[in-house]
Fold:
Amino acid sequence: MPQFKAPVRDFQFILHEYLNLAQYQDVPGFADATPELMTPVLEAAAQLCEEVLFPLNQVGDKVGLKYDNGKVIMPDGFKEAYNMYVEGGWPSFTCDPNYGGQGLPDVLNMPLMEMVCSANLSFGLTPGLSHGAYNAIMLHANDEIKKKYLPKMVSGHWSGVMCLTEPQAGTDLGLVRTKATANSDGSYSLEGNKIFISSGEHELTENIVHLILARLPDAPKGIKGISLFIASKYDINADGSIGAPSGIRCDGIEHKMGLHASPTCQISFNGCKAWLVGEPHKGMRAMFTMMNAARLYVGVQGLGIGEVAYQNALAYCHERLQMRSLTGAKFPDKAADPLVVHPDIRRMLLTMRAFSEGCRALAMEMALKHDLTQRHPDAQVKEECDAFVQLLTPVVKSYLTDGGFEMANLAVQCFGGYGYIQEYGVEQYVRDARITMIYEGTNGVQALDLVGRKLPLHTGKYLRAFFHPVDAFLTKYKDNAAMKEFVKPLSKHTEYLQQATLWIAMHGLSNPDDAAGGAVEYQKMFALVALAYVWARQAAVALEKLEPRVENRESSKNTVHDSSHSTLATEFYQAKLDTARFYMQKILPQTISLLASITNGSKGMMAATL
Ligand SMILES: Cc1cc2nc3c(=O)[nH]c(=O)nc-3n(C[C@H](O)[C@H](O)[C@H](O)COP(=O)(O)OP(=O)(O)OC[C@H]3O[C@@H](n4cnc5c(N)ncnc54)[C@H](O)[C@@H]3O)c2cc1C
Structure:
């Protein structure tokens, strides 16, 4: 049986020590971000995920969904779990208080999102997409639409979905054909077919709100002719109650590699009544403004899977006895040593730990910066945070989802044959993680966004939002002996990243294939250096926390017994240093081969016969 324990201590570390949220006490919404108030919330979320959602994960995978004449039947237990999620007030956590939300910053929601994804990604898609739809409505709809839909979405009684993809229009949404025609009452009638719509039909909620990309009759061709509409499974009466079915139908569900308990629906719009959200033909712009949050959320899906895969691999490698350590038996009283003594197993486990803890800190930092773009009173801070978020969104979406899949694979490898069979549950993580690299913009398309749009924008302003803080950090710690082992590699590999950036900028201008051909490698290189920056700062915090303990040991008389100075606390910070060290020594050097590949250019690849 697989296991999952929410990493509450690491969430606390990131919120209160690494990000030091106390410094934002005066920013609206941050007053409650204290350890005293947040710890019980984290623990309650952890309990829901560990005890309710996680036990349903394998059930959902094995039982799957049933389609019956337009209806989707969820596996047993999912409806009850969703009701508990709603009763706990979780959908409203970060939503606007004007619509019944609790108004908390997104950074405080990240632990919940990650835990849900670790516990049961199929379940998590419904509330996750709903939150994305909520964001789009908040940002672009008029007050009338907001009042009509948001309170029920915020409470979780209605869910929301995103209807973009059509059979001929995946990455290229300019090919969307769904048609909208104006009615005399200001509404529109929609006709068309969408595919692959996650949570497009289910009975978890009383109503489902659809955000739909469609084309008006006078629309220009391509991406500039797409508008955004809102409609719901059931029409809504003037008093807000639910009316008749609107003409949105689920024509079937897909049978797929993973996420067996997440309905991926074919949806037809058969003259259903819809309303325009935002301006005509500006639908793609509306989608783009909420995409940063949505892409970060998909990144967190990869992270969540990576974490649960790691936990299971770690536990197994402590139990499973195979062979002896190369340097002599470590457990001579046992028939063999546990797997965890072997160097290659340690490489895999530490790779997973470095991924989870590094990416968690990076993702939460992204959420914090996103919050500050909206809430901070200083316009310059807002601008800098926005530039950081814009630049790193494709990097985070792709690295965390590529990584989630890779970590799940490593977990299977740690389990050996027992990983490949179903009993231990880890092969499910490989299957569930795979789609995260594809939806919400494939990872290849994220890389094109990074090199094609984000690098050149505002003459490198976005890049400066990353490189300037790294420089400041390197300067601050340049003479710090304890930090040398982290600062030196960060400095060296930041230089490599700068070389790659320059190469892409110069060659991309004369030959776009050179930039596009190295985009995925460049994106990975960026992630590796961004994570080195994260790990160096985590190490700095850990060293600072350990310092008083070193002094206390030296003075021999003063032994501090409070919780922050316990053996457990020391072990926690020591583990941070171990992982930071592993990251710098064993993972960061990958940038060297990536740089070589990028600067080899695209000529040979483009000339090859395929
Ligand atoms: C389980 C699941 C859930 C989904 N949920 C939703 C949902 O809720 N709502 C929704 O609207 N859609 C959803 N999707 C659709 C998903 O977003 C698309 O599958 C995705 O955007 C890719 O589109 P496509 O499958 O048509 O692939 P294509 O666009 O055909 O791409 C195929 C390959 O070509 C690459 N490619 C395409 N163009 C370029 C280019 N210019 N340069 C280089 N490479 C390129 C892509 O990166 C990809 O590797 C879901 C899909 C699945 C499978």
About this structure: Residues 464-552+565-602 form one domain. The radius of gyration is 25 Å.
